[in-house]
TrEMBL record, chain A:
Name of the protein described by the UniProt record: Sugar ABC transporter substrate-binding protein
CDD domains according to UniProt: PBP2_TMBP_like
Lineage: Bacteria, Bacillati, Actinomycetota, Actinomycetes, Micrococcales
Gene3D superfamilies on file: Periplasmic binding protein-like II
Species for this entry: Promicromonospora soli
Swiss-Prot/TrEMBL keywords: Signal
From TrEMBL, chain B:
Keywords: Cell membrane, Membrane, Transmembrane, Transmembrane helix, Transport
Region span, Disordered: 1-21
Protein name per Swiss-Prot or TrEMBL: Sugar ABC transporter permease
Superkingdom of origin organism: Bacteria
Length: 458, 315
C-alpha cells in the first residue's frame, strides 16, 4: 500500500496539475483543422480545392452535386470538409488568422464576413462577379448583399439566406376563434399567447438558451422594435436604456407566462420539436424553419401552419437577416479555380440543378430574386416562399432599429467582442428566467460589459 | 608476521573491491538514469513546454479576431482575471459540482458494490448493466438526459414526479446545478463501484470468518473491518473521480450552458478561448487554474485523507 501513499502524495498534485494544464492547452490549441489543402496547379494536373463548410442540409446538397461542376471543369477537383457550426468557426478562424492556408473556399456567416474582410483575410470578389454578365450579381438579394459588403465591395457571396417571421398553428387559432393579422404587434402576439396557453399547449415558443446566436438573435430584434439598441452611433452602450429593459422584461414575462417550460434548454431545435408536434401555438424564428415544418415526414403540423411578418412595436419590420456565404481566403493558392466554384455554387444554374436533381423544396432560399420566379419552386414552397421573399426584401440591416447604428447587421453587432458579450448577458438572463435574479442588476452588468466592448471600437 | 603482513593487503584488497563495487554501482546507476531520460524528456516536452508556452500566451494581448492588436500585455490578463469575479465564482462552481458528484458517486458506489459483492443469480449481468453508464460517451449521455429524461414536458423524470403528484420541474432552468450533479453522479457511480467492488473482493475471508466466530453481526463487521479495509480504495476512487470530474464539459455545454452556478473552470476556459477568442485571457485563466489546483491538491487533499485514517491502520 506504499504505492497508494506515494501516489497520493506525489501523483495527486502532479495529476491535477496535468489535468488543469490540459485544460489550459485546449484553450490555446483547440480543435485542429481539417485535411491538407491542394497544391498549386501544375501542367495538366487537376487543381484540388479544399472547401470548409457547415454541415447544414443545403451544404450537403452542394457536395452531392459537385460532380456536375467537376464534369464541366475537368481540371478542378473539390474536396468538402463538413463541420458543426462552432467547430467550423474555430477551425477557419484559426486557419485564416494564423495564415494556415488549408482552405481555398470557406463558408462564413453573415456576422463574420465584414470583420474578416476588414482584417484582410478574404479576397475581394466584386470584380469577378460584376465582370460576368451571365452571373447577374444584381439578382442577389439586396439586404443580404448590404450586410456582407464592406465599403461597397463584396467579400463573400450568399449561398442561402434567412430572415425571421412568426409561425402559428392555424388549427389552434381556429379552435380558439382567433385571427392572426398580416403584420401583428408584439402586444397582440402576447395576448394570443396568454389566451392559447394551456396545460397541453404552450402559447408561444421563444428561444431562451444562452448564446449570442440563440437567445440574442430573437431578443435583439425585440429590443430594436421596442426602440432600443446595443449601441448608439458613437459606440456608447445603450443596455441601460429603458427601451432595452422594457423589451427584455416583456420577452422574459411572455416566456414565463405563456412560453415553453424550460427556457434555458430551448433553442431553435427544441422549438422546432415542440411546434412540429403541435405542442406550441406560435413561434418566432428563422424563415428556414418553415421548410422543416411543412415536411410531412418530420412534422405533424404540415399544411396547418400560417406565416406572417415578425411582430413589431415601433418599427415597420422586425425580421432578422442571416446568410451563409462562400468566401475565398487571402491565403489560397488557387484563387481562379476557387472563384469558378463559388460562382457555380451561387448561380441561377445551380438553383435549377438542385431543383431538377434533388427536388424543388431543397433549392437554397433567400439568396436570389430569380429563384422566387421559378414556377416549380413557387409551387413547392407556396406556403412560405412569398412571405420569406417579402420579409427579406423589407428588412434593413443598416438601420434595423429607430436610431442609426454604426454597424451593419440586425440581430448581432458586427464587432469581434459581440459573441462574448451576448453569451455572458444571456447566461445572466437565464437567472432572470428562473427567477433567481431581478432584471435590473443583470442589465447593469450587461451595460458595463457592453461599454467595455464599445470602447474598443472608438 | 604473516598475519600482520597480510592484514593490510586484505584490507587494501577489500577496499579496492569496495570501490570497484561502488564504481559498478555508480555506472549501473548511470545506465538506469540514462534509461529514464527518454520518458522524462517526453513528459517534459508534453507537459512543461506547453505550460511555458501557455504562460507566454497569458502575457499577450491577443484576440483572434483582432490580428493587428497583438502585443505584450504584461500582467493585464491576470489583473482582469482577478478583477472580473468570474474566476472565483467559477472556482466555487467547480468545487460544488465536482465535490458533490464525487461524494454522491462514492456513497452510491459503495452501496452498489456491497450489493454486488453478494452471491446471487445473474450477478454478472447485473454488474455489466451497472457499469454501462460509465461506458457511455459523456456527450451522448448528456443528450439522453436532456431529451428523454429531463425534458420539461415529455421527460421521464417529470412523468415520474407526476405519478406522485409533484408538479413538473424545469430542470435546466430552475435547478441547473442539481441537473448537472445528477448526470455526473449517474456516470461516475459505476466507476467508484468498480474500484470499491475490487476492494471488497480483495478482503481476506479468514478475517470475516473470525469476526463471525467472535459473534460480530454484519453491521459491526462492516463498520469495524470492511470499511477500514476499504479506506485506501475509497481514497483512490475519490482521487481518480475528482481528477476526471474536474475536466467535465459535455453535460454543461449541452444542458445548462454554464448558467445557474454550473460554469466550472473548464467551461469558463472554453468560453474565454472559443467564444471570446481571447487567447491571452484564456491562457491566464489556464495558468491560474493550474496554480489553484496545485495548492488545493497539496493542502486540501492531504487533510481530507487524514479524516479517513484510523489509529493503527495509518501506514
Amino acid at each position: 500500500m506504499k504505492l497508494t501513499r506515494i501516489a497520493r502524495r506525489k501523483a495527486a498534485p502532479a495529476g491535477l496539475a496535468a489535468t488543469a494544464l490540459a485544460l489550459a492547452l485546449t484553450a490555446c490549441a483547440g480543435a485542429g483543422g481539417g485535411g491538407g489543402g491542394g497544391g498549386a496547379a501544375g501542367d495538366g494536373e487537376p487543381v484540388e480545392l479544399t472547401l470548409a463548410t457547415v454541415n447544414n442540409p443545403q451544404m450537403k446538397d452542394m457536395e452531392e452535386l459537385k460532380g456536375e461542376f467537376e464534369k464541366d471543369h475537368p481540371d478542378i477537383k473539390v474536396n468538402f470538409i463538413q463541420m458543426e457550426e462552432n467547430d467550423l468557426r474555430d477551425a477557419v478562424t484559426k486557419d485564416v488568422a494564423t495564415d494556415g492556408g488549408q482552405y481555398d473556399i470557406v463558408t462564413v456567416g453573415a456576422y463574420e464576413v465584414p470583420i474578416w474582410a476588414e482584417n484582410g483575410w478574404l479576397t475581394d470578389l466584386t470584380g469577378d462577379l460584376e465582370g460576368d454578365a451571365d452571373y447577374d450579381v444584381d439578382d442577389l438579394f439586396e439586404p443580404v448583399k448590404d450586410a456582407l459588403a464592406v465599403d461597397g465591395s463584396l467579400y463573400a457571396v450568399p449561398f442561402y439566406g434567412e430572415s425571421s417571421m412568426l409561425m402559428y398553428n392555424k388549427e389552434l387559432f381556429d379552435e380558439a376563434g382567433l385571427t392572426m393579422p398580416e403584420h401583428p404587434t408584439w402586444q397582440q402576439v402576447a395576448d394570443f399567447a396568454r389566451q392559447l396557453d394551456s396545460d397541453a399547449v404552450d402559447g408561444i415558443c421563444l428561444r431562451g438558451k444562452p448564446g449570442w446566436g440563440e437567445l440574442f438573435a430573437p431578443l435583439t430584434t425585440v429590443v430594436q422594435t421596442f426602440g432600443g439598441s446595443w449601441y448608439d452611433e458613437d459606440w456608447n452602450a445603450q443596455v441601460d436604456s429603458p427601451e432595452f429593459a422594457e423589451a427584455t422584461q416583456f420577452y422574459v414575462d411572455l416566456v414565463r407566462d405563456a412560453g415553453e417550460d424550460d427556457p434555458v434548454s430551448t433553442g431553435f431545435t427544441e422549438c422546432l420539436n415542440t411546434v412540429s408536434q403541435g405542442r406550441s401555438a406560435m413561434w418566432v424564428d428563422a424563415t428556414v424553419a418553415a421548410g422543416l415544418l411543412e415536411d410531412p415526414e418530420s412534422s405533424e403540423v404540415a399544411g396547418k401552419m400560417g406565416y406572417v411578418h415578425a411582430p413589431v412595436v415601433k418599427t415597420e419590420e422586425s425580421g432578422w437577416l442571416w446568410s451563409w456565404n462562400l468566401a475565398i481566403p487571402e491565403t489560397t493558392q488557387n484563387r481562379e479555380a476557387a472563384v469558378e466554384f463559388v460562382k457555380w455554387a451561387t448561380s441561377k444554374e445551380y438553383h435549377q440543378l438542385v431543383g431538377t436533381e434533388l427536388g424543388w423544396s431543397r433549392v437554397p432560399p433567400g439568396a436570389r430574386n430569380s429563384t422566387y420566379e421559378i414556377p416549380e419552386y413557387q409551387e413547392a414552397a407556396a406556403a412560405f416562399a412569398p412571405i420569406t421573399r417579402d420579409i427579406m426584401l423589407a428588412v434593413n440591416p443598416e438601420q434595423p432599429g429607430l436610431a442609426p447604428q454604426p454597424w451593419t447587421g440586425i440581430q448581432y453587432v458586427t464587432i469581434p467582442e459581440f459573441p462574448d458579450l451576448g453569451n455572458q448577458v444571456s447566461q445572466d438572463l437565464a437567472d432572470v428566467f428562473a427567477g433567481r435574479s431581478e432584471l435590473a442588476p443583470v442589465l447593469e452588468r450587461a451595460q458595463q460589459l457592453a461599454q467595455e466592448a464599445g470602447d474598443a471600437q472608438k | 608476521m604473516t598475519v600482520l603482513m597480510s592484514a593490510p593487503t586484505t584490507r587494501r584488497r577489500a577496499r579496492s573491491a569496495g570501490s570497484a563495487a561502488k564504481q559498478s554501482r555508480r555506472s549501473s546507476l548511470a545506465v538506469s538514469r540514462a534509461m529514464l531520460w527518454p520518458a522524462l524528456a517526453t513528459s517534459i516536452v508534453l507537459t512543461q513546454i506547453p505550460f511555458v508556452v501557455t504562460i507566454f500566451y497569458s502575457l499577450q494581448n491577443w484576440n483572434l479576431l483582432r490580428p493587428g492588436d497583438r502585443g505584450f500585455a504584461g500582467l493585464d490578463n491576470y489583473v482582469s482575471v482577478l478583477r472580473d469575479g468570474s474566476f472565483l465564482s467559477s472556482l466555487g462552481a467547480t468545487v460544488a459540482v465536482t465535490g458533490s458528484s464525487v461524494v454522491l458517486s462514492t456513497v452510491l458506489g459503495l452501496l452498489f458494490a456491497v450489493l454486488l459483492d453478494r452471491n446471487f443469480r445473474g450477478r454478472g449481468l447485473a454488474r455489466t448493466l451497472m457499469i454501462t453508464p460509465f461506458l457511455v460517451m459523456p456527450a451522448a449521455a448528456a443528450l439522453v438526459w436532456k431529451w428523454s429524461i429531463l425534458d420539461a414536458t415529455t421527460g421521464m423524470a417529470n412523468w415520474a414526479l407526476g405519478l406522485v403528484g409533484i408538479p413538473p420541474v424545469a430542470w435546466n432552468t430552475d435547478v441547473p446545478i442539481v441537473t448537472i450533479i445528477a448526470v455526473l453522479t449517474w456516470q461516475y457511480t459505476p466507476f467508484a463501484m468498480l474500484i470499491l467492488l475490487a476492494g471488497l473482493q480483495a478482503q481476506n475471508k479468514d478475517v470475516l470468518e473470525a469476526a463471525a466466530v467472535d459473534g460480530a453481526g454484519p453491521l459491526r463487521t462492516f463498520g469495524w473491518i470492511t470499511l477500514p479495509h476499504l479506506r485506501q480504495y475509497v481514497e483512490i476512487a475519490v482521487l481518480l473521480a475528482s481528477i476526471m470530474l474536474l475536466q467535465v464539459f459535455d453535460p454543461i455545454a449541452i444542458m445548462t450552458r454554464g448558467t445557474g452556478g454550473t460554469k466550472t473552470l473548464s467551461y469558463l476556459l472554453y468560453e474565454r478561448a472559443f467564444v471570446g477568442l481571447e487567447v491571452g485571457e484564456a491562457a491566464a485563466y489556464g495558468v491560474m487554474t493550474v496554480l489553484v489546483t496545485i495548492v488545493v491538491a497539496t493542502v486540501a487533499l492531504r487533510t481530507l485523507f487524514k479524516v479517513f485514517s484510523t489509529e493503527g491502520l495509518g501506514r
